[in-house]
């Protein structure tokens, strides 16, 4: 139940607090006073679209807060709040929404910042909002199907959920099948190119790193004579076989000279050791250079082989990668891709088999849904017809009709093929016969504005028994209604308020008279609604407000008498209702 709504800087509302209680609360006031802004505020709390144009002129932003009390029946809401990081204190949760003048929006749930969609998910299980636009929405086939499906309840919901999953999978399968079949030529061309490349790589059989090794070998073979000549010069310089001076001989002479005097000076001994070490290193280097020079043979045949191999590898790297390692990685990936392409025919058969199985399951579930809907349609039509009788439409009759549309590419069941979508094969339509003897006609053609209002209210009262929410909000759903029909609407709203919190914005005194709490919206002298502009009326104030609504005058004796009479009748009805059990079906008895 909504306990309190706080609004600041929203439309004509500057600062206001609306305290609500159980039962039926009505909000009235002059046209343009800001009544509908209260419904707009509720819409924001329930995750509705934020509109910067609703921010009061000259303000940086608007803010709406709602304090909601939870019951055991709405315990799932508390769990959702905690999952979102919010807190529930004393079985109460705070919902909040901020809208900046630039259009930015922030939502809060139990003190935690959340996406606006999170408010919507929580709000949908707490509050059902209905305005004049819902009457027009009710004319759409999808809205009529949704109403029937909601009334059918869990038996249909279970099948529908399974059907939707299969329907989504069928669309994915058909999309993949079209892609596979539609690209057969491209796949064949790609497979041929891959085979050609793999054959080229396999014929050469490269080894990772081979290109670097061959480059080094080719350079060595190509400069063998030059390398040998340089190595011989170096060898002779280090250790000559002739009498020419060499490095090793010079170092040996230095070593002998220092060895002869080392015993006379420790520093000379240290130098002698170092020169000895140098002589060993020179001997090793000289031996290595000699070995290197000996191993440098000119081999034109090997050079040709190496050059030819490098050229072949270069051909591969131009096409398939910068290095031989990248060429080998391309070959690995190409092999996997080729396996996939070669297996496309098998995949086509798999997809076709799955498609057939899915269509068979969908047909079976669609038939089951038709059965559930047909059974619910009969009950819903009878229940709404009964409600309409209590809303001054005693001869009206509502029928819920199921139909199908033939489609040669549709689902095959019951001897035909029918167009199908994510909700099955059924087209749902509400037909209204407003008077005795008249043929039922679609709501958009056979119902006036006032009749449409009552049909929607009758539907809501009926659906409330199968999918109860704690709070119902009606924004001028009684438009186009007057007289006795308005009185009956007031009674039906009062009957609904026996099991739910009901908030109604209305211009009809016949409806307002049945309220448990009557709130009037008044503008201040500057045209805004402040905290003091929302007034909960006492008995005297209610008579005066009903008088204004009846005759436009608060002090007319005739209007005041009429207003008092309306209140007396409403209170007598309330007393009679209190003595009766809450009805499970059918209309609430009237006087």
Short summary:
The protein is α+β, with helices and mostly antiparallel strands. It has 20 helices and 17 strands. The chain has a six-stranded antiparallel beta sheet with strand order 2-1-4-5-6-7. The chain has a six-stranded mixed beta sheet with strand order 8-14-15-3-16-17, sandwiched between helices. Strands 9-12-13 form a three-stranded antiparallel beta sheet.
Provide a descriptive summary of the structure in words:
The chain is an alpha+beta fold. It has a domain at 210-322. The protein has 20 helices and 17 strands. It has helices at residues 35-45, 75-83, 116-124, 132-137, 141-152, 154-182, 184-204, 210-222, 224-238, 247-259, 266-295, 300-320, 324-342, 344-389, 443-446, 449-464, 483-496, 509-512, 539-551, 557-578; strands at 2-10, 13-19, 24-29, 61-69, 92-100, 105-109, 112-114, 127-131, 397-403, 406-413, 416-418, 427-433, 441-442, 471-475, 501-505, 517-521, 534-536. The protein has a six-stranded antiparallel beta sheet with strand order 2-1-4-5-6-7. A six-stranded mixed beta sheet has the order 8-14-15-3-16-17, with helices on both faces. A three-stranded antiparallel beta sheet has the order 9-12-13. Helix 6 (154-182) runs antiparallel to helix 14, helix 7 runs antiparallel to helix 13 and helix 14 (344-389) crosses helix 16 (449-464). The longest helix has 46 residues, at 344-389. The radius of gyration is 45 Å and the shape is elongated. Mean pLDDT is 83; it is low at 584-591.
């Amino acid at each position: 139940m909504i306990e309190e709504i706080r609004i600041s800087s929203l439309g004509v509302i500057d600062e206001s607090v609306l305290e609500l209680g159980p039962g039926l609360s009505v909000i009235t006031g002059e046209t343009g006073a800001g009544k509908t802004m209260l419904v707009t505020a509720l819409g924001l709390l329930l995750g509705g679209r934020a509109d910067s144009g609703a921010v009061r002129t000259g303000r940086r932003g608007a803010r709406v807060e709602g304090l909601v009390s939870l019951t055991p029946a709405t315990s799932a809401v508390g769990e959702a709040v905690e999952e979102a990081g919010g807190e529930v204190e004393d079985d109460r949760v705070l919902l909040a929404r901020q809208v900046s003048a630039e259009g930015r929006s922030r939502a809060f749930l139990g003190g935690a910042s959340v996406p606006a969609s999170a408010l919507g998910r929580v709000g949908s299980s707490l509050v059902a909002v209905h305005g004049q636009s819902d009457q027009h929405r009710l004319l759409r086939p999808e809205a009529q199907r949704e109403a029937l499906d909601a009334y059918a309840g869990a038996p249909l919901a279970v099948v529908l959920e399974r059907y939707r999953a299969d329907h989504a999978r069928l669309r994915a399968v058909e999309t993949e099948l079209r892609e596979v079949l539609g690209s057969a030529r491209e796949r064949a061309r790609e497979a041929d190119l891959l085979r050609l490349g793999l054959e080229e790589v396999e014929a050469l059989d490269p080894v990772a790193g081979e290109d670097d090794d061959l480059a080094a070998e080719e350079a060595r073979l190509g400069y063998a004579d030059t390398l040998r000549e340089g190595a011989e010069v170096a060898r002779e310089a280090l250790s000559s076989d002739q009498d020419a001076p060499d490095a090793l001989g010079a170092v040996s002479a230095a070593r002998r000279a220092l060895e002869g005097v080392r015993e006379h000076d420790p520093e000379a001994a240290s130098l002698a050791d170092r020169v000895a070490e140098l002589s060993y290193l020179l001997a090793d280097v000289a031996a290595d250079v000699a070995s290197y020079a000996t191993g440098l043979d000119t081999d034109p045949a090997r050079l040709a082989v190496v050059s030819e191999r490098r050229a072949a590898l270069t051909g591969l790297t131009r096409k398939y990668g910068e290095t031989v390692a990248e060429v080998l990685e391309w070959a690995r990936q190409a092999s996997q891709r080729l396996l996939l392409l070669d297996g496309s025919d098998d995949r086509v058969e798999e997809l076709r088999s799955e498609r057939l199985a899915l269509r068979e399951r969908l047909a079976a579930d669609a038939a089951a849904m038709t059965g559930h809907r047909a059974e619910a349609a009969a009950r819903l039509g009878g229940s709404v017809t009964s409600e309409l009788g209590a809303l001054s439409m005693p001869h009206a009759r509502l029928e819920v009709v199921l139909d199908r549309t033939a489609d040669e590419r549709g689902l095959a069941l019951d001897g035909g093929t029918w167009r199908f979508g994510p909700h099955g094969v059924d087209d749902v339509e509400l037909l209204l016969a407003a008077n005795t003897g008249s043929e039922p006609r679609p709501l958009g053609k056979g119902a006036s504005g006032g009749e449409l209002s009552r049909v929607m209210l009758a539907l809501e009262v009926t659906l409330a028994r199968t999918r109860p929410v704690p709070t119902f909000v009606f924004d001028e759903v009684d438009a186009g209604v007057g007289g006795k029909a308005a009185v009956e609407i007031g009674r039906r709203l009062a009957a609904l308020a026996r099991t739910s919190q009901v908030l109604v914005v209305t211009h009809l005194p016949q409806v307002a008279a049945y309220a448990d709490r009557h709130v009037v919206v008044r503008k201040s002298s500057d045209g805004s609604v402040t905290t003091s502009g929302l007034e909960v009326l006492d008995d005297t104030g209610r008579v005066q407000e009903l008088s204004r609504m009846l005759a436009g005058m608060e002090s007319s004796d005739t209007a005041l008498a009429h207003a008092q009479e309306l209140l007396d009748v409403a209170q007598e009805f309330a007393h009679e209702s209190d003595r009766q059990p809450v009805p499970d079906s059918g209309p609430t008895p009237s006087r």
